[in-house]
Structure formats: C-alpha cells, structure tokens
C-alpha cells in the first residue's frame, strides 16, 4: 500500500524541521567543556605566584601564608586555588584558617571492675595510666530511649581513696522527629588516674540495671592560632562633624580590595585622652561600595601610663579601606602615628615530598570547583612539628592563561535569528502545503448525497 503524496510531503518537511532543531540545539548548547575529575591544566587560571621554598625542610609538611593580593585575584571562597609543579603536575594541598580554638582529644583508658550495685546501679572504673594527663569531659553511650538516669563520677589517685567529681542526670526525650539527648559530661579539670562511674536506672523505664555501653575520656587542648598582621597606609586627617560633636577622620588603605581584617591597633602619640571612636569598612576608591560600621568604642589613656597601641576587635570583614572616625569635641585632634591590622592567617599546606621541583600557586578561575583533596581530609588537625614556612612570591599574570571560548551564541549572536527565521519559513511552508492539499482533497471528493 503506497503512501499518499500529502503524507510524503508532511514527513519530508517534518524531517527538515527536526534536523534544523537538532543542529541548532547542538550549536547553541556549546558551553565550556566539563573539567576532568582527575587532572586540570593551569591554562584556565589568570594569576600565579611562586612558592619560594626554604633551603632545607625540617618537617614533612610545607606551608605558605596567603597575602592580600591573593585575595584580590582569587574567588571569595578561595576554592579556585591550585598548586602545580614546573612540569605541570597538580599538587594536593590543604587550605586552613588559623583561628585559635579549643578541641577535645580522646585519652586511652583501660576498663575494669564493671559491676552492678545492690540498688540496681551500674558501676565502671577506668584507669588512665600514670601519664598525669589533664582531662575534663566524658562521652557515654547508653541503650534505650525516653529516660532520665542519674550519673555520678568519682576520681582517685590510688584506686582506694575516692573524691566526688561530678553528678548530673543523663536524659533522652523524644517527641515525633525531635530528639533531646544529653550524654556528654563536663567536670572540673582533673589529673586523677582513676575514674569511677556510677549510673542509676530510671525507675519509670528501666526494670533492671542499665548496661554502660561505651565511655570515652576527653581532654581539652588549646590549638594556637596565627594572625597575619600588616601595616595600613594612613591618609591625611580630615576634620568632620560626628553625631556627638566635631571630630576627625582617617582613611586607611589595606593594600588589597578583599583583604580580611578582624582587628586593628592604633599607635597614638598623645599623653592622655578619652575619645569615642568608630571604625567603618569599605571597598576600593571609585568602586561605588560604601562604608559600613564594624566597630565602636572608647579609647582611653591616662597621664603616666605606658604608651601602647590601642586595640579594637570585631567580626572579620573583607575590605579595601578602613575609615577611622574619632570624636574630638573641644580637644585637639589625636596624633596617629601608625595603624596595623590583622586577621586569622589563611594557610596552604602541602607535603614536603611534593617539593622535589619548584611549585607555583595558581588562582583566578571563577568556574573552578572545590578540589577537596584526600590529602586535606587526612591531614592531622594539629601538625607536629610545625610545617616548614615557605615564602609566597609576587602575584603575576599567568603566561599560560587561555580564557574559556565563548559559546556560539555569544560569538555569532545574529545566528540565532537566522535559525529562527528559517524554522518559521519551514513551518509556514508546511502549513501552506497542508492547506492546499486539504482544499484539493475537498474539491475532488464526490458531491454530498442530499
């Protein structure tokens, strides 16, 4: 059975439209190629800086501290940092913010004397050894739900004379998908070698003594931070009115457009003063970014007190300039000699074994993804010994840089109008052909029977 001419015509035109659609879709969907998940090339990074390693590494790790010019060229989240060797090999790294913090570390403890008391309580004794390590917290794992069980803790140096350390209820309450569970115990800092735990059952829930499943003894360790302190370039004093009276204003340049800052120290030559101050953070001059207040307070110095810089701390901000406003009232303006600013250092750590050849830091790729290296996830939180410090060279333009090719729609913006016009013409031709075929079929049909 042969197809009718009209059917052939429709199929041919539909094939043309489909082919045109597929071509236009492939042409206009050309985007940047997906980066390899195993390797990258430095050609997509705009900036680079040399990592100037020390002559001799004294640690299995090496690190550099990022400078303000790195923040200017990199993404805000710093996920576009990459380290490559001179031969183009990608080097895994860990990026850390060197904030001062406290962390809890588990201690080894030997368990003995696990018993049940006559009052259906559970007892357990732990031996922490003779290391005389400080400890101040426990984590305890218990079975069951919806309970309130009393917990007591005693300490001893010899296992004979016991002293009470702590007492508190351990609770587990649940309502729907909400859970309130408290199985962490904090107690005064102690160096007792032996700890004796006693857990009482909840008479409303527990029919017998409750098994203490697991106990972890913890000690709090203060991890020191590191700050990057730099000098600000202080501009000339400006006389301005403030909300409280006549005052002075100084604009301080931080040396970069996105420089982190969380504190400043102001060196003042005056012998005695009490002044209200306000600190504002803003973008680079001419950027249109205004200033916003990040700190206020009072600076005071009495006659005879030793001269030292006056400090102000505030939540970290990214800024190009700081504006220091001081209310003078009827007093002479302060004589500001120097302003320094600081923030938690950003540290890039690599393995010293990766330094068999020179390395460079690359940055400035808005499309780069967070690399999340295994090296970074396996790196200990506290590095002992400290990494060998390397210097970071000046930021330079990456000579290998090649921008991503623009999509076809941006390279040939007129092409989309051509494709749409051709598609409209084809569709109009199909509609016209169908209309003519329908009229011809109607005219050739037999007259209707009355």
The figure for the number of domains is 4
Calculate the mean pLDDT score and round it.
Answer: 86
Q: Unreliable runs, pLDDT <50, ≥5 residues?
A: 26-38
State the CATH class of the largest domain. Answer: Mainly Beta
Remind me, CATH topology of the largest domain? Jelly Rolls
In the CATH hierarchy, what is the architecture of the largest domain at level 2?
Sandwich
Task: Tell me the major beta sheet.
Answer: 6 strands, antiparallel
Structural class by SSE content: alpha+beta
Measured as a percent range, the helix fraction is 10-25%
Shape: extended
Q: Tell me the span between the first and last alpha carbons.
A: 33 Å
Keyphrases for this structure?
extended, 30 strands, 4 domains, Jelly Rolls, 450 residues, six-stranded antiparallel β-sheet
Describe this structure in words.
This protein is of the alpha+beta class. Helix content is 15%, strand content 43%. The protein is built from five helices and 30 strands. It has helices spanning 5-28, 68-73, 374-378, 408-411, 415-444, and strands at 47-52, 61-65, 82-85, 90-91, 94-97, 101-107, 110-116, 122-127, 135-141, 147-156, 163-175, 178-182, 184-190, 194-199, 214-223, 227-231, 233-234, 238-242, 245-253, 259-268, 273-282, 292-301, 310-319, 321-327, 336-344, 346-351, 359-363, 388-389, 391-392, 396-397. β3 and β4 (90-91) form a beta hairpin. The longest helix is centred in the last third of the chain and has 30 residues, at 415-444. The two termini are 33 Å apart.
